[in-house]
Amino acid sequence: PKGVQLQWLINNEPEDSTKLMHAIRQKQWLSGTPYPWFAGEFETMRQVRRYFRDEKKIDRKQMYISSYWKHGDTDEGMKQAKRRDPDA
Q: Which terminal residue of the chain has fewer beta carbons within 10 Å of its beta carbon, N or C?
């Protein structure tokens, strides 16, 4: 199949990234040049970014992975954590 494939995954336990990482790892790896695009909880996006960078060897310029909230923290706290994170 060609084109964009979108899959929504609802996690009622946002502090647990297991469900998302399991779903990502179960996806069939297609040929061609991937461009992973994810937005979500801070710690979960760190794990997603590491997976694509370290295991799938995708350059950070070839993916968009961003956090827009952090479990148990304020918006400002998340922004500060993002600034301190060298991988963000």
A: N
5-38 pLDDT per residue, tens: 778 888 888 778 888 999 999 988 888 888 999 9
Task: Judge whether 20 and 48 are in contact, CB under 8 Å.
Answer: yes
The per-residue pLDDT for range 34-52, each reduced to its tens digit, is 899 999 889 899 999 999 9
User: Are the C-beta atoms of residues 71 and 46 closer than 8 Å to each other?
Assistant: no
Among 4, 6, 17, 2, CA closest to 67 = 17
CA angle 21/50/32 to nearest 5° reads 80
- pTM of the prediction? 0.80
